[in-house]
Amino acid sequence: MGMDDFAPGRKECGQFIVKNISPQKKTISIFNYPINLGCTRDLLEIPGVSEGDIKSALMKGQIRHKFKVGDIELVFSDIDLLQFNDCGIKYLEGYGFTTGILVGYDQLDGYVQSLLNASGGVGYLWREKIPLIGMRNGVNRTFYTPDKFLNGSYLGNNFQITVLHNGGHKYENIDYTIAESGGPGTGYDTINLISFTPNTHSLMFATYAIIA
After folding, report:
1. 3-state SS, residue 113
2. How does DSSP assign 47-95, residue by residue?
3. Distance of CA 167 to CAs 13, 58, 87, 204, Å?
4. How far apart are CA 179 and CA 184, in angstroms?
5. Burial of 145 (0-12, 13-18, 19+ CB in 10 A)
6. 60, 79, 111, 142: which has the highest count of C-beta atoms within 10 A?
7. CB pairs under 8 A, 24+ apart, for 170-177?
8. pLDDT on residue 212
9. Element (H, E) at 116
């Protein structure tokens, strides 16, 4: 973790800065880089570390652990940590995250706001905890959504599907990848699992946005 082959260069945008406030007054390490007591580090400056690495470590890895034991505090973050559930939002807000965790009307630029005001709608709809379609037989790893879901930027918002397996959150490019069953440009509707294989007792749900 933390040395993504797809993020070898230096960052151009975004920051994720934390400060070492260790109760044991010790030097700590994140992504194998030390942070001295009382010092800060922008984790996105670390070579090979992408936003995806940070998000994964924050939600279920070493950054989450550092927050829980009180080794670090948030100084500033403006990377994409978009959450589609109250649990994730409350968790991040509890450690001081306010930017990048959800998209509200005030965060849209003036042009998009004017479009929404004129149309009377937001241009997209949420589908929450929709059962995924596919065989749960301990072999199959390909599942489908009943709708074409949004992925990436749309009307000034950045959308990403959320997948749950037996109540636990799974992460794109770590636990699964997404695809368009009809080929490029036909719309995302496919989940290809890579870190686990559901069985007959598995419960698979997804939350996502679709075009209204």
Report:
1. helix
2. TT--HHHHHHHHHHSHHHHHHHTTSEEEEEE-S----SSHHHHHHHHHT
3. 33, 18, 12, 8
4. 8
5. buried
6. 79
7. 170/195, 170/196, 171/55, 171/56, 171/59, 171/60, 172/52, 173/52, 174/52, 174/56
8. 75
9. helix 110-119
In this prediction the pTM is 0.49
Given this model, what pLDDT does residue 120 score?
A: 52
pLDDT in tens, 98-132: 877 765 544 444 544 454 455 455 678 888 899 99
Q: What is the CA radius of gyration of the chain?
A: 19
Under 8 Å CB-to-CB from 9, ≥6 apart: which residues?
47
Q: Round to the nearest angstrom and report the end-to-end CA distance of the chain.
A: 37
**Span 46-65, mean pLDDT?**
91
CB neighbour list of residue 145: distance below 8 Å, 6 or more residues apart:
127, 130, 132, 133, 161, 188, 189, 190, 191, 206, 208
β-pairing, 72-77 vs 124-131, is: unpaired
